């Protein structure tokens, strides 16, 4: 491992000050460390300054549910949020996405902010002995396009990068129209969660809309008619801890079997947490029949671009979405 400076701020205010002079390529925030330390050991990330924010769990580790909605501190542990009774009852898609992510040990260590900002699992990105990776070395090419790309994305890709966004929680947050509060040298700002992750385009190394030195402080999920009837379905290669090959976060507001409103986000198949707006539009106002769900799933994947090893993700993604919608529709109504 390379040498680095180590700083441990005690509060968000101190952390913002510490990050004020941050350089994107030379500073890194450490929270649970379950992604960052891995990538430093692999020599993929080489920060010269490590800003350890673990002390912020006391200030920003909260889970607060009220009539307006849910506020989740970015430094709350994944395990704690997954088990929180209010989250389980009223925002089940969030609890399920966290409970199905990683292993119990990792969930006890890792925090929400780190989860949504984890880097891709593309093997070429994680192995610097591969020269071509535009995400790791801008302008170097993309080894995955002609290489092993079974786990790669079919939606939102570009000729510069086809890496899959790997996390689970982000799909739940995007489906529930969450916002994210970020703190930086110019104060705090709130942005829609959907605007946090950037499509790869020609700059796959720029993965988020965060400004240099900005820290995610909180996630805000509005209370809406669809939040309690929500569900996360994850398909993976093995039942034990594993990343999604395909997943769907859905939230439904039903009047009998008619869809008053629906929210759909897809994981494991796209370069960013993927909101399927056109599929939602197709379902709204109609009966939630098997045919309607299948038609919506086809619409969700209409723009999919498969690569040599991952065409199966289109049929799998469609089936995952149909099953998630069907299971959400069968949830017991609220008294
Ligand atoms: C074997 C294994 C299996 C896994 N399986 C899954 C899975 O199935 N699903 C899934 O979702 N995840 C999975 N993960 C990933 C795991 O959930 C993440 O590593 C973890 O959530 C990251 O959280 P952390 O607190 O450890 O972040 P860290 O590793 O400390 O940080 C991750 C990144 O986020 C940045 N960061 C962290 N917090 C903030 C903040 N508040 N503001 C700004 N930047 C911040 C850091 O600088 C760093 O770049 C797996 C990991 C492993 C090792
Ligand atoms: S898919 Fe993206 S992360 Fe993977 S090798 Fe290509 S550029 Fe790198």
UniProtKB/TrEMBL annotation:
Annotated PROSITE patterns: FAD_PCMH
UniProt-recorded Gene Ontology molecular function terms: FAD binding; oxidoreductase activity
Highest taxon of the lineage: Bacteria
Keywords carried by this UniProt record: FAD, Flavoprotein
Domain (FAD-binding PCMH-type): residue spans on this chain: 1-226
InterPro entries xref list: CO_DH_flav_C, CO_DH_flav_C_dom_sf, Diverse_Substr_Oxidored, FAD-bd_PCMH, FAD-bd_PCMH-like_sf, FAD-bd_PCMH_sub1, FAD-bd_PCMH_sub2, Mopterin_DH_FAD-bd
Stated name of the protein: FAD-binding molybdopterin dehydrogenase
Species name: Acuticoccus sediminis
